[in-house]
Design a protein that fits this description.
Layout (H helix, E strand, L loop, with lengths): L7 H5 L7 H15 L8 H17 L2 H10 L20 E2 L2 E2 H9 L18 E7 L1 H6 L1 E12 L15 E2 L8 E8 L2 E8 L8 E2 L12 E12 L8 E4 L15 E7 L6 E3 L2 E9 H6 L1 E7 L2 E7 L8 E4 L5 E2 L2 E5 L2 E8 L6 H14 L3 H14 L1
Parallel strand pairs: 3-11, 13-19
Antiparallel strand pairs: 1-2, 4-9, 5-8, 6-7, 10-11, 12-13, 14-15, 16-19, 17-18
Length: 379
């Protein structure tokens, strides 16, 4: 039930007024923390990972987030009667359709949108694919399987049995609408309404196609191989034009919209087209300088660390990040932040050497603190 779910903002650990960047950052952190690949066999982590993904799916979408902010979880609970779209759309007031009021007065007065014999565009179809970090960075091919509505193969979309054709409706002359007069408290009103004989299609079918039962449409399962461009990021979408459900009465097909989810990497953190990575180095390497091993998208490399490097120092490798989707020849940067590891469990000889080294430096933490506070007083 919707009321047993945790608040989506609480799930991601962000304030209700958080911007998109804060929501995305929180999602990446939690997705990496609870990802099943990094927590094999941990059922709690798997549950939390699904919860995090569900929260991000809503809060990262402006329309869904607006509905959630207004109605909470009930906005996406079919049992609530909202059906993910508020109160069932405009004109529906708690089960009372305002069109019933017009019907009682005007006999079902139609609007310009009531005619069903004009071209109608097919509906869009949304699917989700999950990529590894490497697949997103370098691009790949993925098979996507989905269900769509298309014209019936037996009748070609006419709805009539093979060898027969629909006929023009004699009641409305093919317009799909009829004109009626009705006496109301306001006088005699003339209006148009959807034709009852053809239900607004303008055609009647004497012998219906047995395969589609006269609808002219059938539901099929389709599989497509999709090219995933290099550099695509988590939360982005790929649109394949006219691969959605078929239209009717000559209307164009809808689109196939592919939402992309990217699994976190064990080494790299991605922000747009830039990559961030923490590299541990020893005390000796930081002090004396060294050529250390680093990880890049192209594989392991050696990188020179200058002597006297402090922990937290960041080095920039330009154009070594992720390729930009719209400009594959251009890439982001790779940022390496070094962390100096303090040695532990020293033996007596090592401690003696380190103490002699500290004494030779002639400075202590206390003396540095004194200089620091002197500067603060001057400021």
């Amino acid at each position: 039930m919707a009321d047993t779910k945790r608040d989506y903002y609480e799930v991601l650990g962000v304030e209700k007024g958080a911007d998109d960047a804060a929501i995305k950052k929180a999602y990446r952190t939690l997705a990496k923390k609870y990802h099943p690949d990094l927590n094999p066999g941990d059922k709690d982590a798997e549950v939390k990972f699904k919860e995090v993904n569900e929260a991000y799916d809503v809060l990262s979408d402006p329309d869904k987030r607006a509905k959630y902010d207004q109605y909470g979880h009930a906005a996406f609970d079919p049992a609530s009667g909202m059906g993910g779209g508020g109160f069932g759309g405009f004109g529906d007031f708690g089960g009372f359709d305002i069109s019933d009021l017009f019907s009682s007065f005007f006999g079902g007065m139609s609007t310009s949108g009531s005619r069903r014999n004009g071209p109608v565009r097919g509906s869009d179809i949304r699917v989700r694919v999950t990529l590894t970090f490497e697949e997103a960075v370098f691009g790949c091919k993925k098979e996507v399987t989905y269900q769509k509505v298309q014209q019936c193969a037996d009748c070609g979309g006419s709805g009539a049995a093979p060898g027969t054709t629909p006929k023009t409706c004699s009641a409305c002359g093919g317009t799909g609408q009829v004109r009626v007069q009705q006496r109301t408290p306001f006088g005699v009103v003339q209006s148009t309404k959807t034709c009852d004989s053809c239900r607004g299609t303008g055609k009647t079918i004497e012998n219906k196609c047995t395969h589609c039962r006269g609808t002219g449409l059938e539901r099929v399962t389709k599989t497509l191989e999709v090219n995933i461009p290099a550099g695509i990021d988590d939360g982005q979408q790929i649109a394949l034009r006219y691969q959605g459900s078929d239209g009717t009465n000559g209307g164009s097909a809808g689109d196939l919209l592919i939402a992309v989810s990217v699994r976190p990497h064990s080494v790299f953190e991605r922000d747009g087209d830039d990559l961030y990575c923490e590299v541990p180095i020893t005390f000796a390497e930081a002090t004396l300088g060294a050529s250390i091993d680093i990880q890049t998208l192209e594989g392991p490399e050696k990188y020179p660390i200058p002597e006297g490097t402090q922990t937290g120092t960041t080095f920039t490798l330009r154009n070594r990040g992720v390729a930009r989707v719209n400009n594959p020849k251009s890439r982001g940067n790779l940022y390496l932040t070094v962390t100096v590891e303090v040695p532990k469990n020293l033996n007596a000889e090592q401690k003696d050497l380190l103490e002699r080294f500290a004494a030779s430096c002639g400075e202590t933490n206390y003396s540095k603190k004194s200089n620091f506070f002197k500067r603060r007083k001057k400021d």
